[in-house]
Amino acid sequence: MGTAQRMDREKNVVGTIYIGQDVTELKDIDEWKISMMAMMSHELKSPLHGIIGLSQAMLLDKSTAQKGSVVMISNCATRLLDVVRNLMDTSELLHRRNRPLARDPVHLAGVAEEVVLLCQQAVDKRGVSTMKPSVKIINTLVEPLPVIEADAYRCTQLLYSLVSNAIKFTHKGSVTISASADDVEEKVTVYVKDTGIGISSDNLDRIFEPFDQEDRSEKRGYEGLGMGLALCREIVHQHRGTLAVKSQKGKGSTFQFTLPYKMPVEDKAEGKGYEDDKSVSLRVPATQTRQSTNISDLSGGWSNNSAPSAPVMGRAPTLDPLAARSTSSGAERDGPSKNLAGAQYLPDVGEDSQLVVLSVDDDMINQQVMTSLLQSSQYKLQVASSFGEALNYLLENPPPALILLEVMTPGLSGPDALRTLRKKYSAEVLPIIMISANGDKDTITRPSSRVGNLSTFSA
Ligand SMILES: Nc1ncnc2c1ncn2[C@@H]1O[C@H](COP(=O)(O)OP(=O)(O)OP(=O)(O)O)[C@@H](O)[C@H]1O
Ligand SMILES: [Mg+2]
């Protein structure tokens, strides 16, 4: 909405002209884009899990010829899965649905340390490290800094996006991470300063839009979808913080975000946290370099993308979501116990018998992946393509050693199916693990790539 004063011939103000634009349609298109993105991402993930799972199962088979090609297939699919996950993550954040931020005590120095490690491990699409010998990473963000209340995971994601951008767009010089705290305003500001290619002032606003990049041409030489800064902006907004950039073409850029020490009280009732897997797959760290420099002295000229609120700090992105899950909370992972001997429905496991794992999932590729994974193990896979089929199996057979229950089970949702089963079978008698493609809370996430992990549950 814009306004202008209306004057008469003598230049007296006689009124105000209001100019407005109806943005309802634009907002609808935005909403549609976001939900399309979520739907597409979801549909893309299932076949990718299949490709990753099957190629990893092939690699377990020692006789597999052309191992190198299979590894490449697996790596490509994993990479694509990362893109899809990031898409889902962004669309979820933009939707701001059902997913309130966690309220973790966040040590920003720890976050910075973790981010540097992650950047050191990151590789590009050719599998080459994204670090450049000509670019020095300088992390001056050290304690003592106040511990802030924020979403630790989102904080890591935020700083990682900024630092990885700085590295990507800098060919010579340095990337410096620093911070300052304001005890009066109770805010902490983090700076990521680089000596890279810079951004022209005309483009400073649009780079924060989803899928927008300064160079839109097809010949642009940098990887990426243009999602990182949109995600950063949303994270910062949700924490009631601010995000700003100052840049000079050819000289470098400084991005800064400010987060309050405490998240606003009105959000507290909603704050439940992100316990699901939000892994950003990156190759894992080696060592970390840290050097002391002064906190950046920044003033004026900021293109400000601040808005409402703030999150983030650290759970490390992981390459193996299943492994991560097996050690974290969640999932019905009361695990097939060795104590089955006392159970009412003891499976008759003789010397030559195999323990049965009942997999409830209508996706044949998922089932095939599971079959391949369990092939050389002590488990025999029994497949049910709906919850009804699973119930029939249970009526006619002793309880299996373990049920793997897809969250989106045809016939009944995973959680409802779980509740139904629990009325009849205790966790000791019938261990159940819920699996999901989406990294939902209390599940393990596909691709489940290792039989070893299953044995953790069944030991
Ligand atoms: N430190 C920087 N120096 C120069 N340009 C930058 C910097 N950070 C961001 N940009 C510009 O802003 C654009 C948007 O950044 P953003 O992080 O959203 O996307 P991306 O890095 O291109 O892709 P993605 O983050 O999805 O991998 C970049 O494409 C680049 O043009
Ligand atoms: Mg980026």
From TrEMBL:
<dbReference type="Pfam" id="PF00072">
    <property type="entry name" value="Response_reg"/>
</dbReference>
<keyword id="KW-0597">Phosphoprotein</keyword>
<dbReference type="InterPro" id="IPR001789">
    <property type="entry name" value="Sig_transdc_resp-reg_receiver"/>
</dbReference>
<dbReference type="InterPro" id="IPR005467">
    <property type="entry name" value="His_kinase_dom"/>
</dbReference>
<feature type="compositionally biased region" description="Polar residues">
    <location>
        <begin position="286"/>
        <end position="308"/>
    </location>
</feature>
<feature type="domain" description="Response regulatory">
    <location>
        <begin position="356"/>
        <end position="459"/>
    </location>
</feature>
<dbReference type="Pfam" id="PF00512">
    <property type="entry name" value="HisKA"/>
</dbReference>
<dbReference type="InterPro" id="IPR003661">
    <property type="entry name" value="HisK_dim/P_dom"/>
</dbReference>
<dbReference type="InterPro" id="IPR036890">
    <property type="entry name" value="HATPase_C_sf"/>
</dbReference>
<feature type="domain" description="Histidine kinase">
    <location>
        <begin position="39"/>
        <end position="263"/>
    </location>
</feature>
<dbReference type="InterPro" id="IPR003594">
    <property type="entry name" value="HATPase_dom"/>
</dbReference>
<dbReference type="InterPro" id="IPR011006">
    <property type="entry name" value="CheY-like_superfamily"/>
</dbReference>
<protein>
    <recommendedName>
        <fullName>histidine kinase</fullName>
        <ecNumber>2.7.13.3</ecNumber>
    </recommendedName>
</protein>
<feature type="region of interest" description="Disordered">
    <location>
        <begin position="285"/>
        <end position="341"/>
    </location>
</feature>
<dbReference type="Pfam" id="PF02518">
    <property type="entry name" value="HATPase_c"/>
</dbReference>
<dbReference type="InterPro" id="IPR036097">
    <property type="entry name" value="HisK_dim/P_sf"/>
</dbReference>
<keyword id="KW-0808">Transferase</keyword>
<dbReference type="GO" id="GO:0005886">
    <property type="term" value="C:plasma membrane"/>
</dbReference>
<dbReference type="InterPro" id="IPR004358">
    <property type="entry name" value="Sig_transdc_His_kin-like_C"/>
</dbReference>
<keyword id="KW-0418">Kinase</keyword>
<dbReference type="GO" id="GO:0000155">
    <property type="term" value="F:phosphorelay sensor kinase activity"/>
</dbReference>
<dbReference type="GO" id="GO:0009927">
    <property type="term" value="F:histidine phosphotransfer kinase activity"/>
</dbReference>
